[in-house]
Specification:
The protein has 181 residues and is of the alpha/beta class. Strand 2, helix 2 and strand 3 form a beta-alpha-beta unit. The longest helix is centred in the first third of the chain and has 18 residues. It binds xanthosine-5'-monophosphate and magnesium ion. It is found in: Cytoplasm. Its cofactor is Mg(2+).
């Protein structure tokens, strides 16, 4: 496993510090508001678990699972809902929690889909952002780290469902994904 890693891009210690800051900002911004945190399965679960424990105001948690059509490590743009929210949202302020915003297609779809349900507000939060890769204009309200265009794993992010449990955000050796990206 260690042999598959080219380098640590963001260490567990750096992540911890940043997530604390993000939790504090969210706690300030949503004070007195009815917050529903929408975790996007599976990639966001590790970040979400850390983030919500840094949020000091009441909140509710729910999850969505989405899948972009196509295998490998790139997205085609078409998004499909595999699992939807279980609670109504009209009386809630929604915060979408993502692992990474890459082309922006997934987040754009989620924002449009959730806005159509007429919640009080919808904002977005991601631990990683790859601005160079953006194909659509999408606003990220809370971003942990902007990173260059490397394929990364760990801290919830996978390649072929592996490496999610790594505590650091790591760059995978290109030969591991063998041009499948
Ligand atoms: P976009 O913004 O392109 O992101 O719709 C869709 C999904 O692509 C995945 N993604 C990655 N996953 N390492 C990963 O493990 C990466 O470097 C990476 N870049 C994009 C991710 O699941 C995201 O939700
Ligand atoms: Mg993924």
């Amino acid at each position: 496993m260690q042999d598959d890693i080219a380098e640590v891009l963001v260490s567990a210690a750096e992540i911890k510090k940043r997530v604390k800051e993000m939790g504090a900002a969210i706690s300030r911004d949503y004070a007195g508001k009815d917050l529903l945190v929408v975790g996007i399965l599976k990639g966001a679960i590790i970040f979400l678990a850390d983030l919500v424990r840094e949020i000091t105001i009441p909140l509710q948690l729910d999850f969505m699972a989405v899948s972009s059509y196509g295998a490998g490590t790139t997205t085609s743009g078409a998004v499909r809902i595999l699992k939807d929210l279980e609670v109504p949202v009209e009386d809630k302020h929604l915060l979408i929690v993502e692992d990474i915003v890459d082309t922006g297609l997934t987040l754009k779809y989620l924002l449009e889909n959730l806005k159509a349900r007429k919640p009080l507000s919808v904002r977005s939060c991601t631990i990683l952002d790859k601005p160079e890769r953006r194909l659509v204009d999408v606003h990220v309200d809370y971003s942990g780290f902007s990173i260059p265009d490397y394929f990364v794993v760990g801290y919830g992010l996978d390649y072929a469902q592996k490496y999610r449990h790594l505590p650091d955000i790591c760059v995978l050796k290109p030969e591991v994904y063998n041009g499948q990206r």
